[in-house]
Amino acid sequence: MAAKITTFEPPSSASSDSECGETQADFSEVFPDYEAEEEKSGNFYNTPASPITVPYCARPPSAGSQKSPKARRQRTTSINKSSKQTASESVLRTQHRTIYTAGRPPWYNSAGQQVEPFVIGICGGSASGKTTVAAKIIAALDMPWVTLLSMDSFYKVLNEKQHHMAHDNEYNFDHPDAFDFDILVSTLQRLKEGRKVEVPIYNFVTHAREARTKTMYGANVIIFEGILAFYGTKLLNVLDMKIFVDTDADIRLARRLRRDISQRGRELDGVIKQYTNMVQPSFNHYIAPLMTHADIIVPRGGENEVAIHLIVQHVHAQLQLRGFKLREELAHSYVGQSLPETVHLLPTTPQIRGLHTFIRNKDTPRDEFIFYSKRLIRLVIEYTLSLMAFVEKTVETPQGVLYNGKRMATNKICGVSILRAGETMEQAVCDVYKDIRIGKILIQTNFSTGEPELFYLRLPKDIKDYKVILMDATVATGAAAMMAIRVLLDHDVPESNILIVSLLMAESGVHSIAYAFPEVQIVTSAIDPEVNDKFYVMPGIGNFGDRYFGTEPSGE
Ligand SMILES: Nc1ncnc2c1ncn2[C@@H]1O[C@H](COP(=O)(O)OP(=O)(O)O)[C@@H](O)[C@H]1O
Ligand SMILES: Nc1ccn([C@@H]2O[C@H](COP(=O)(O)O)[C@@H](O)[C@H]2O)c(=O)n1
After folding, report:
1. pTM, two decimal places
2. Per-residue b or e along 56-79, where b marks 16 or more CB atoms closer than 10 Å to that residue's CB
3. What is the C-alpha separation between 437 and 457, in angstroms, rounded?
4. CA 337/CA 222 separation, integer angstroms
5. Which of 35, 121, 221, 349 has its CA 20 to 30 A from that of 292?
6. How does strand 437-445 pair with strand 452-458?
7. Is residue 132 in contact with ligand 2, taking CB distance under 6 Å?
8. In sequence order, what are the residues at sequence separation of 6 or more whose Cβ sits closer than 8 angstroms to the Cβ of residue 206?
9. Spatial distance between the Cα atoms of 247 and 218, rounded to a whole number of angstroms
10. Residue 300, Ramachandran bin (φ over 0: left; ψ between -120 and 50: alpha; else beta)
11. Where is the Phosphoribulokinase/uridine kinase domain positioned along the sequence (predicted)?
């Protein structure tokens, strides 16, 4: 009778668009010029202050000159209403699988739960200065991850008759019926949940939505502006702060004349006709009464520096309330608790301890460090595959005898490395799982806040359908691993499909991950008891990336 053994059979229908070759990419491949990126559309982390801000392409220290955080912010918050469409197009170019962010701080708490963004609604008459006020708030907030959503994006699609009316300045764009409130409310609600949304792009010249949409994704602050931004309880319920911009009607008309003629392709007579017959009456009937819902009324719009200052102070206070020092909190939790059931620790054999002895020894030369790390990584990755589900598979041997074996139940497994140390594990995954697709997430510690920040991600298409082997060489507090897991969840990967795999983890990191994400499987070859005040595992390995790549320690 044939013995039953478990084999790692490569899936017969492994995807032919394998990206395993990419895993050898150096940073120049991983961080190509932004303009050069031509990837398929897919998951998206919107850049700060999109959709009307030209995205900032963050680069790692090794890939050219590093801009200061201040300089980055200045680029990410420059808003120019007159270039609304041009800027939207810039954002559209970002609908690739490769995403750059300006260093997104955590958007979840220590329990892995998302922290809701603070949503500001800005209501007011046409050309009252809503967008100008929004831009001033964004500039004064001086922080990344502010998103501006305009109600204009939700104008309904017109039929032919309505189109003719619009051309003759006879269609009422200022009546609530002109807007698609269902899509508007659900878009705002999804954004508030930190979900990805596709926002229609509206063209004021053609009175129509463009075929393309712009993708937006989460933010710490969302600003929503529009003439009917407070219309209906569903909208009001989403807003955390309601601002009404109150500008005199004659000023609004003067601004609108100038803007509609210069930017929206209109004629003087047509603007006056539309304004007199529809804009002003609708303002009186629908928009002005909404002022009663306002928390703050801003006379004179963007000129009102005092009002903007007060608003910004309030937003900062609210963000403070939602904020937290994630890494610090994680480092000091869960001391002395028993290990969670989701932890899979490789058997501590003499062989494993021997490999650890080499890589933990501070005197091990770099070539030996790499050699023994690779051996240990290979064992950890093989062990990870052994945790996958297997099904019966019978084959015929060359002797014509049946052999009852096993094959992996799924062929949908991909790897995602947390750059930079996790990249060292990619080769082992490629070696043991043929044609595996590899994604990358760059998370760096901000040395002034101590928090992890998300800079870059590139994930395999349809990752939600895959088991994901998430790789980082070491896990200390678990902050970076949690951010990466959060990214995967935000891309609809089921929690139970994620395995976080490391050579070495600190006990507190294991507990933090397990507490926040109880269904994530945790695989490692050793668990050390402590994390020091620089968030290194103790006794540890030191900085794995620096030792493996031979780089100088930086920033600490
Ligand atoms: N305080 C101001 N002084 C002069 N022009 C302004 C001022 N605020 C806004 N504008 C101009 O008026 C027009 C409408 O302003 P905007 O902020 O886009 O209003 P809204 O978003 O309410 O339609 C724009 O062309 C803008 O440049
Ligand atoms: N096709 C369209 C759609 C809308 N309008 C006018 O735009 C105004 C709202 O935009 P603001 O930036 O001024 O808030 C609204 O008053 C509509 O009359 C348009 O003219 N054509």
Report:
1. 0.58
2. bbbbbeeeeeeeeeeebbebbbbb
3. 14
4. 39
5. 221
6. antiparallel
7. no
8. none
9. 31
10. left
11. 119-307
Both tokens assigned to 332: 């000091």
Number of the ligand closest to the Cα of 131:
1
Q: Which ligand is nearest to the CA of 128?
A: 1
ipTM of the complex: 0.98
Would you call the peptide bond into 539 cis, given omega within 30 degrees of 0 as the criterion?
Answer: yes
* pLDDT tens, per residue, the chain with 556 residues: 333 222 222 223 323 333 553 432 222 222 222 222 223 222 233 333 332 222 222 222 222 233 333 333 232 222 233 333 332 222 222 222 344 454 556 666 666 666 788 999 999 999 999 999 999 998 888 765 678 899 999 999 999 999 999 999 999 999 999 999 999 999 999 888 877 788 999 999 999 999 888 877 667 789 999 999 999 999 999 999 999 999 999 999 999 999 999 999 999 999 999 999 999 999 999 999 999 999 999 999 999 999 999 999 999 888 777 753 455 556 556 666 788 899 999 999 999 999 999 999 999 999 999 999 999 999 999 999 999 999 999 999 999 999 999 999 988 999 999 988 999 999 999 999 988 999 999 988 776 666 777 888 899 989 999 999 999 999 988 888 988 998 898 888 999 999 999 999 998 889 888 888 889 999 999 999 888 877 788 899 998 999 999 987 765 4
The Cα–Cα gap between 65 and 219 comes to 26
Please state, in angstroms and as integers, the Cα–Cα distance from residue 318 to each residue in 53, 137, 294, 342, following that order.
24, 14, 17, 36
d(CA 509, CA 501): 12
Cβ proximity of 260 and 205 under 8 Å: no
Distance between Cα 260 and ligand 2 center (Å): 9
Q: Dig out the tokens for 384 from the structure.
A: 């990870």
Our measurement of the distance from residue 281's CA atom to the centroid of its chain's CA atoms, rounded to an integer in Å, reads 42
Q: Tell me, in angstroms, the distance from the centre of ligand 1 to residue 134's CA.
A: 11
**Measured in whole angstroms, how far is the alpha carbon of residue 119 from the centre of its chain?**
18
Tell the CATH topology of 20-26+328-549: Rossmann fold (3.40.50)
**Domain boundaries along the sequence of the chain:** 20-26+328-549, 116-322
Q: For strand 467-471 and strand 413-419, is the pairing parallel, antiparallel, or unpaired?
A: parallel
Amino acid (1-letter code) at residue 358:
F
The SS3 call for residue 389 is coil
Question: Which ligand 2 atom is at minimum distance from the Cα of 155?
Answer: 3
Domain 116-322 classification at class level: alpha beta
Residue 275 backbone zone (phi > 0: left; psi -120 to 50: alpha; other: beta): alpha
For residue 255, report the distance from its CA to the centre of ligand 2, in Å. 13
189 Cα: distance to centroid of ligand 2 (angstroms) = 24
20-26+328-549 and 116-322 have identical folds: yes
Give the residue, by CA position, lying nearest to ligand 1 atom 4.
255
**Nearest Cα to Cα of residue 469 among 425, 432, 415, 424:** 415
